[in-house]
Design goal:
By secondary structure, the chain is of the alpha/beta class. It contains twelve helices and eleven strands. The chain has an eight-stranded mixed barrel, surrounded by six helices. A hairpin with a 5-residue loop joins β3 and β4. The structure holds ligand C2E and magnesium ion (3 copies).
Length: 281
């Protein structure tokens, strides 16, 4: 039993599979930086589907560390450490670079969808960020209007002084902005009134609670209604069941993302997925 307990502590679930836990591997910051430099990090794509037409409208780019020894490692292991040590930018630029290249390839294959990239709020403190992002996307020959930047508030957030300026600039440069994990951060509502967001992503915890929790359903419905009034897209993440899908469709939510539709996958698999779903337009 002790042995089992020991094993259990060394592993944790990620995408319904077991992976070695952070504690048991204990990556050093140097090892991560080395991994970024060696481009061991990959962009996985998860489809975003229009709830009314069932068509693929976009994909979210999610960072994965393809570790030569430990295999695929999820962001919960490396993002917090990188953020805490002010090293998240290098990863963000690598992921953006790969996401923009993926977007170009998809467009070349007649799949004209939007690709979303996650941005840590800590990165928004750098006054040159908007410029750097614009350069990377331009170099990939992608129109910024096909790149959505998902802004998440995290525990590491200490108040990015230049956030408003950066977001305004990115918006002026043609990028779409999205509030990620909506409903969990303390200033999400305030952000909505100050920045020209074009998408509101309802946090997956509300969707997961919705089956047994009426309050969660009311929060979801109100968020969808508010998004409509604000003339921004409503997106639900963490859609895991047919029941979730039906509820969101009934509520008039625009877009769904989650394991019920598909898990994040590498670029070749994502292209296959789009072709299979005859999502060429
Ligand atoms: P997020 O942006 O809210 O992304 C959604 C997360 O939910 C992803 O986890 C995705 O794999 C997972 N997910 C999708 N559908 C389902 C579902 O049906 N059920 C459940 N339980 N989960 C689902 P992932 O890939 O582990 O990423 C976790 C977080 O790490 C992301 O949350 C995002 O905040 C951050 N992240 C990921 N990639 C990057 C990146 O390149 N840069 C930055 N700054 N943050 C990133
Ligand atoms: Mg996101
Ligand atoms: Mg989210
Ligand atoms: Mg999240």
């Amino acid at each position: 039993l002790e042995h089992l307990k020991d094993l259990f502590l060394k592993y944790e679930r990620f995408e319904n599979k077991w992976f070695p836990s952070t504690e048991s591997i204990n990556f050093s910051l140097d090892e991560m930086k080395q991994g970024i430099r060696n481009k061991q990090f990959e962009t996985f794509l998860q489809p975003k589907i229009d709830l009314q037409t069932s068509r693929v409208t976009g994909a979210e780019a999610l960072a994965r560390w393809i570790h030569p020894v430990h295999g695929v490692i999820g962001p919960h292991i490396f993002i917090p450490l990188l953020e805490k040590n002010n090293q998240i930018d290098e990863l963000s630029f690598l992921i953006l670079d790969k996401a923009a290249a993926a977007c170009r390839l998809l467009h070349n294959n007649n799949c004209k969808i939007t690709v979303s990239v996650n941005l840590s709020l800590v990165s928004l403190d750098d006054i040159t960020l908007a410029n750097k992002i614009s350069k990377i996307v331009k170099a990939a020959d992608v129109d910024p209007s096909y790149i959505t930047l998902e802004i998440t508030e995290t525990a590491a957030m200490t108040g990015a002084a230049h956030a408003l300026e950066n977001l305004t600039r990115l918006c002026m440069n043609g990028f779409k902005l999205s509030i990620d994990d909506y409903g969990t951060g303390y200033s999400s509502l305030q952000q909505l009134t100050r920045i020209a967001f074009s998408e509101l992503k309802i946090d997956q915890s509300f969707i997961q609670d919705s089956v047994n929790n009426e309050a969660a359903r009311i929060v979801i419905k109100s968020s969808i209604d508010m998004a409509r009034e604000l003339k921004v897209q409503s997106v639900a993440e963490g859609v895991e069941t047919q029941q979730d899908w039906d509820m969101l469709k009934d509520m008039g939510c625009n877009t769904a993302q989650g394991y019920f539709i598909a898990k994040p996958m590498n670029l070749p698999s994502f292209i296959d997925y789009c072709v299979e779903k005859k999502q060429k337009y």
